[in-house]
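Whiteboard transcription, Tuesday session. T.W. wrote the structure tokens on the left side:
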């Protein structure tokens, strides 16, 4: 770790206080994700902890993205249709709303972008076949959790960060480091340690804006973080949530098998089509 990053990380505990604990449902789902022998019955037990998950799972299973000739009417059928891995990620994502991290309009806009990136990373995984389609949803959802936690603790200062980003058209990281002395990637890495998140998830939170991701040695990790970065770029171009528009290098798009702009446009169309139903599930709208 370089000296500059160590200095930024040292500033965080003094400023970002009262980090909430990871919800019980999210903790249990993380256990399922790391357990190779977990089953649908195990997931059903977790879902039963919050009865609202059942109706929301059924609703998303019957959305245009997943619908087949017949509609599903119970949770087990919804899990089978959506896919075990994806449902685990969805339940983890939805449980985060219990943390009180959507208390103002800025929180909600930040989570809208996180939700869109989660969906985008899932679509990219499915369309390119580079990764299983479930876990990228968790990576995408949490990629900017640092922004949410900073806004929770430093609303006035983060409001100034947002104004500077919007007025000067600069990246969030640049404005955050200038005004706060650290950035949302640093906070993401810090909270990942506090929540005891898996190493690969912590890496995505800390590094999704890096420019040298093609040099990451672990191939699965490289694909994962680049998929999140790509989804972030596409969702930013669509103007979903609060984000600063940026692009990937030609080499990064090529690595993800997305060099063709038409293919990227197709993914954007899928994101726009399915975003409302995923926002409904994760953020609790429509309940």
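and on the right, the sequence the group agreed on:
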């Amino acid at each position: 770790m370089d000296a500059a990053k160590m200095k930024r990380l040292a500033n965080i505990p003094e400023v970002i206080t009262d980090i909430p604990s990871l919800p019980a449902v999210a903790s249990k789902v993380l256990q399922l994700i790391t357990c190779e022998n977990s089953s649908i019955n195990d997931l059903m037990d977790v879902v039963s902890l919050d009865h609202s998950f059942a109706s929301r799972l059924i609703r998303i299973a019957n959305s245009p993205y997943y619908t087949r000739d017949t509609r599903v009417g119970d949770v087990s059928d919804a899990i089978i249709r959506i896919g075990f891995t994806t449902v685990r990620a969805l339940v983890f994502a939805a449980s985060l709303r219990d943390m009180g991290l959507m208390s103002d309009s800025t929180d909600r806009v930040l989570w809208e972008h996180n939700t869109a990136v989660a969906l985008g990373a899932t679509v990219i995984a499915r369309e390119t076949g580079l990764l299983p389609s479930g876990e990228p949803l968790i990576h995408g959802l949490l990629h900017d959790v640092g922004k949410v936690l900073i806004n929770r603790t430093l609303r006035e200062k983060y409001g100034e960060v947002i104004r500077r980003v919007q007025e000067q058209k600069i990246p969030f990281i640049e404005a955050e480091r200038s005004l706060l002395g650290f950035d949302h990637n640093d906070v993401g890495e810090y909270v990942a340690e506090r929540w005891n998140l898996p190493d690969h998830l912590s890496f995505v939170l800390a590094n999704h804006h890096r420019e040298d991701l093609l040099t990451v040695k672990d191939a699965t990790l490289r694909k994962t973080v680049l998929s999140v970065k790509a989804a972030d770029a596409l969702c930013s171009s669509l103007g979903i949530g609060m984000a600063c528009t940026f692009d990937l290098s030609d080499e990064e798009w090529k690595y993800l098998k997305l060099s063709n702009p038409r293919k990227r446009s197709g993914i954007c169309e899928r994101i726009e089509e399915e975003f409302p139903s995923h926002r409904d599930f994760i953020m609790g709208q429509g309940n």
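Someone added at the bottom: The chain has two domains: 23-99, 101-287.
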